[in-house]
Inverse folding.
């Protein structure tokens, strides 16, 4: 069954507009409760980020789950990977996150995790969609009053997750002596992330740690690194760490204020794993820089690409029996520690490499040379039809011909926003910029 509502990362949209309305989310909660809690503990753990709309949608989701006879454990504002971890440790039937991740505050979304802490597969999503379609047409079927689900709050959710994160860091190492700027994107990790690094010995300078319900991801966090770069230079810090609104993405800034993205993080992680005896490969995506592929090839580390979206990275990892993968945008996976993208745990892995080697982040990243890449996001009223136009197909062919064998073009619809992403990669930065902007302008005009 084609999935109508689930995108690459759950269900997402503008609050107040279908599907991000209280009525829809209540019915989604009911549908998910019926499917995910058919047996087991009949309890679902729910977390959220710092968006003002989270309170409204949390109540709606809670009502739907309760109507399905499912108990609800409320964790409050907490990172997405924390919900995945806690759902597993609490033996919940599922974990649910109310977040639109890196999107602006006026968007929100719902993500689901299964009992293992991994994101739902296509089969479970299809089952939820089937029940959801029924609810949208006929309404929900409420269980008898004595069977209604009850809600409780988990008071120590953050503390449990902090200890879990610290437990992934080598106990023989310390972050003492490192000065780190941490940008929490005014999001779900605004308390958790600084605490982890401080408790492991680092001197932490906090920015993006004053959420007010509408400033999440606004000119801060993993999608907007100018403030972090400036702060690292001003404070003479060793490096900077930025997460996104729900802390499943990570970006670094080195001591010179230069961005270290997901591809470079993957390279450092894979190189270290190889040195420690890792025999597997790495999964990237269509957007991964060609420089990553070439650098891994030099190390004799296999590399394959998946579709964009960390759920597709997970599928490829499972298919190949590998453990390390991720996206340029900062979704980083290492199955030695967790089954979903976790910004804090990924940060600790890179920090452990820095501490053990004695080298700076800038020095460590020199083993990989990225090809110039330019990506332009284009908003369009009809994402499906514009890409099938003959005029656009002709322009795409022209760009590919100009690139030849020395570059790549990736043209795709975003799975989380109403955007078409135009990415051109070339040996020449000017060529990448010119061609991506040209194709973006053609799409805008169509």
């Amino acid at each position: 069954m084609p999935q109508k509502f689930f995108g690459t990362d759950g269900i997402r949209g503008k609050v107040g507009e279908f599907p991000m309305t209280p009525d829809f989310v209540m019915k989604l909660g009911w549908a998910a409760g019926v499917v995910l809690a058919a047996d087991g503990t009949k309890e679902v753990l729910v977390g959220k980020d710092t968006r003002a709309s989270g309170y409204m949608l949390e109540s709606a989701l809670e009502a739907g789950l309760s109507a399905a006879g499912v108990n609800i454990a409320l964790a409050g504002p907490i990172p997405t990977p924390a919900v995945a971890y806690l759902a597993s440790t609490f033996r919940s039937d599922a974990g649910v996150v109310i977040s639109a991740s890196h999107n602006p505050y006026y968007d929100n979304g719902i993500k689901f995790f299964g009992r293992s802490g991994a994101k739902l597969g296509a089969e479970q999503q299809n089952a939820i969609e089937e029940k959801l379609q029924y609810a949208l047409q006929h309404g929900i079927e409420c269980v008898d009053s004595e069977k209604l689900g009850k809600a409780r709050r988990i008071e120590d959710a953050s503390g449990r997750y902090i200890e879990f994160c610290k437990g992934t860091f080598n106990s023989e190492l310390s972050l003492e002596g490192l000065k780190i700027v941490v940008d929490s994107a005014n999001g779900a990790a605004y308390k958790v992330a600084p605490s982890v690094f401080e408790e492991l010995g680092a001197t932490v300078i906090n920015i993006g740690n004053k959420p007010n319900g509408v400033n999440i991801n606004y000119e801060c966090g993993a999608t907007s690194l100018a403030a972090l770069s400036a702060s690292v230079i001003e404070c003479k810090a060793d490096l900077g760490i930025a997460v996104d609104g729900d802390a499943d993405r990570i970006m670094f800034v080195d001591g010179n204020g230069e961005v270290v993205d997901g591809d470079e993080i993957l390279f450092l992680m894979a190189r270290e794993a190889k040195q420690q005896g890792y025999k597997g490969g790495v999964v990237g995506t269509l957007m991964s820089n060609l420089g990553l592929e070439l650098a891994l090839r030099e190390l004799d580390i296999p590399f394959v690409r998946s579709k964009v979206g960390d759920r597709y990275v997970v599928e490829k990892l499972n298919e190949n029996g590998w453990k390390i993968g991720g996206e340029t945008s900062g979704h980083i996976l290492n199955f030695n520690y967790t089954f979903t993208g976790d910004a804090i745990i990924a940060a600790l892995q890179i920090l452990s490499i820095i501490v053990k080697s004695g080298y700076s982040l800038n020095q460590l990243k020199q083993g990989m040379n990225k090809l110039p890449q330019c990506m332009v996001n284009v908003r369009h009223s009809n994402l499906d039809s514009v890409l099938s136009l003959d005029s656009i197909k002709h322009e795409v062919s022209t760009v590919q011909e100009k690139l030849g064998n020395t570059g790549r073009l990736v043209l795709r619809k975003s799975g989380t926003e109403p955007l078409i992403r135009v990415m051109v990669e070339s040996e020449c930065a000017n060529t990448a910029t010119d061609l991506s902007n040209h194709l973006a302008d053609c799409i805008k005009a169509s």
Remarks:
- The radius of gyration is 22 Å.
- The first strand starts at residue 11 and ends at 14.
- Residues 169 and 348 are 6 Å apart (CA to CA).
